[in-house]
Amino acid sequence: xxxxPVKEILDLSGKVAMVTGANRGLGKAIAEVFAEAGVSVxxxxxxxxxxxRTIDQLRDHGAQCMALxxxxxxxxQVKKAVEDIVKKxxxxxxxxxxxxxxxxxxxxxxxxSIWNRIIQTNLTGAYLCSRYAAPLMQRQKxxxxxxxxxISAQTGGxxxxxxxxxxxxxxxxxxxTLARDLAPYNVNVNAIAPGQIxxxxxxxxxxxxxxxEQMIPLNRLGKAEDIAYAALFLASPMAEYITGAxxxxxxxxxxx
Length: 256
Ligand code: NDP
Hints:
Layout: E1 16-20, H1 25-36, E2 40-45, H2 48-60, E3 65-69, H3 75-89, E4 94-97, H4 112-140, E5 143-148, H5 152-155, H6 162-182, E6 187-194, H7 206-215, H8 224-235, E7 246-249
Parallel strand pairs: 1-2, 1-4, 2-3, 4-5, 5-6, 6-7
Helix pairs in contact: 1-8, 3-4, 4-6
Bound molecules: NADPH dihydro-nicotinamide-adenine-dinucleotide phosphate (NDP).
NADPH dihydro-nicotinamide-adenine-dinucleotide phosphate binds near residues 99, 101, 102, 194 and 200.
């Protein structure tokens, strides 16, 4: 048998990850699941207090992790976060581009400052993190980049504005080109397109919630763990032959 035993396939001990937007919501769930799989995790976000609280919770469960207060739209801060991870753990195997701001609004309310902020965070942030993480992975001849996009990029979404869906669509396009460019270095690049997931960043009124749940074939909103498990799969040896793909995690609301 020249494959890993199934029981060992989710043991990622020795791997090092950088997860952006990790002090709450989907990023926190991804960091938790990675840590449980043995990964050392650098958690990035802007709110330092919330980041420290999340780190304390993870450490209580024995996780190897570090807080990196970072605005992903600021190049010098991203560069420093990657350097700090390498200084501490000597490598970087997995990058999860999750930091994002969910932003609604019809076109006439989206002025150029709102447009620029969302693109800077959701799209430029993913580009900057990939730009500084990829050379390390290329040198290692091994790595995984996971881009958290959105169903809004595929369908236009239900409430996000044009700036939001454009940022997430840009991410899906970048996902394919990065996958092509990094494949020769054994670096796999994949996206996850979540549907409606329950987090504080995606709060719904009770009426909207009922309406959306009725549209979802699996009849419930997604949970943060649904996305975290998909990210763990893409980071694991199970996904060795998958690159350039988008994994839809949406309860069946979009079927392709
Ligand atoms: P939350 O609002 O709960 O969390 C967003 C995270 O991103 C926080 O940790 C926040 O921390 C961080 N963040 C925001 N701006 C920046 C920045 N400039 N630099 C660094 N970190 C930043 O959102 P979710 O967990 O719901 O969403 C996570 C990702 O998943 C987003 O990219 C979102 O677009 C995507 N998504 C979510 C869906 C959902 O239904 N929940 C559906 C589809 C996609 P801080 O504010 O401290 O910086």
